[in-house]
């Protein structure tokens, strides 16, 4: 049963990431996801300081906001500062990550949080972290519930936003000429990516989430084009 | 505080010496290498390599069973180098885009590394503790032996850059041209990636996997905002790197709980962000100021032009006009118009009386000149480029603000001082 739960949780996260990742690589933003996955660290730490524990909703909000901030900074340095995209990504996420590590070491004494747990995750612990319902009769592993919810949300997101995502991913100039707000789509999509990253960090770790976001879509892309 | 600073900068404590010189050597050598990867628009290569050294470190530990830094570095070098080769191979031989290939190579190598690291950590081998210092770095724990290794590698990198400077430069700016001049591009690229891997492999022990990317990218990005010349860019990047290395070391000395590596990155990032905003010529602020200046000038010239054109109707340039009349000639927002008029008055181009505005002699000349340029350009476009008269107005609207007096004279001479523009309106000349 334990291994089933682990496999189920991992698969749910992987499917979500795979679906979102397709649009990510079509938008040529694979490395932005790498940046977000590193940069959520300060968000998680700050939210942890405010909320007090790793489950709080603050964690989600904090990390989600930092994810958006990362996207914004990358675009800002690129467009207003005319810094090339790759450098803009590199400068932004390392800076935010450094802030995160500094915060972690500052609060290391009185908080149960360390950078490694955020970055690498541990899927093997999933079956032991349970949530109880109806007076303890019914219980589920927390991470499985989270990844299930994430799965449903991202599936619904892609189904309902398919047209907009497709047109803005393949040809943003054309989309703009049709009067579609590419910026809004960009932000919505990137928030979805940051939320996915944050929710999955405990399961697969913030860095390896990039593998789930990039590798399956790239494989599919390659096999369909070969 | 003063005591702390004195203590630190006397370098009497050998630990301080190691950390300071280690950090500086590392920062400088990676900053210099980073300039070239930055200019090749492959800044994220550093990120890929730094993630990809992990499997190499783990493998060489598993094979040798010891933490001999020399063996670990060899392992790290091999996989770091391999990740670049794989990445370039994917980019060149498939339709997969560069960013995807970068993410692919980075995450797969790092995933493999984590897999091996977890295996080692669960194997119960007591010697393994401390392997994960590669992940987060341990700049504050640098010892003499590390310093010697850093020194050798830094000097090796500098020597390579010195001898291959011309080739690297060509490669960074125009690799197609480099190829055409007969430079063995492939081999030079190999050398460049080798020293990049070398810089990363050493640096990673001090600042860790993630932050190593910053040591390569950020000083170069900051330096790029201050200069257009490569030698200066290398120099600035090196200085920025050295300064951040020193400052980071000092901060972690002053507050022992603070990690050195992240503070080095923090300092270098702040310098970079400062440069993005405030660098002369390229900074965001100075560019915004320039943009505003141009916008103001356009507005002012358009107002003078409108006043002149209103005067043309009844051939009365002296009469004062109200704002509604000006807006009727050309659409300005009230705010724009008021501020533009105010500035023009301060510059002596217009007079104000009872809320009515009239051109001064200077304003008349200037407004007339803009109108003249507009009409001359329209004529030029129809006469020489054979563009239909109803298509030339938009272009003339833009160019009228740009043409210099020298160009104006040439244009007049070329068109032989014409009297009328394509719309049969008179072209005004200075009496």
Features:
heterodimer, A: 226 residues, mainly alpha, globular, B: 431 residues, 2 strands, 74% helix, 2% strand
Give your account of this protein's structure.
The complex is a heterodimer of chains A (226) and B (431). In chain A, strand 1 and strand 2 form a beta hairpin. Chain A has helices at 2-26, 30-51, 57-79, 85-106, 115-120, 142-160, 162-170, 172-177, 182-204, 209-225; strands at 130-133, 138-141. Chain A is mainly α and 226 residues long. By secondary structure, chain B is mostly helical. Helix content of chain B is 74%, strand content 2%. Chain B has 19 helices and two strands. Chain B has a two-stranded antiparallel ribbon with strand order 1-2. In chain B, helix 2 packs across helix 8 (165-173) and helix 11 crosses helix 12 (230-254). Classes of the chains: A mainly alpha (226), B mainly alpha (431). At the A-B interface, helix 2, helix 4, helix 5 and helix 10 of A face helix 3, helix 5, helix 11 and helix 13 of B.
Distance between the termini of chain A: 40 Å
Rg of chain B, rounded, reads: 32 Å
Tell me the fraction of residues in β-strands of chain A, as a range: under 5%
Q: Determine the structural class of chain A based on helices, strands and strand pairing.
A: mainly alpha
Strand arrangement, largest sheet of chain B? 1-2
Give the overall pLDDT of chain B as a whole number.
Answer: 88
Low-confidence stretches of chain B: none
Major sheet attributes of chain A: 2 strands, antiparallel
The number of helical runs of chain B is 19
Give the number of DSSP strands of chain B: 2
Secondary-structure element order of chain B, N to C: HHHHHHHHHHHHHHHHEEHHH
How many helices of chain A in DSSP terms? Answer: 10
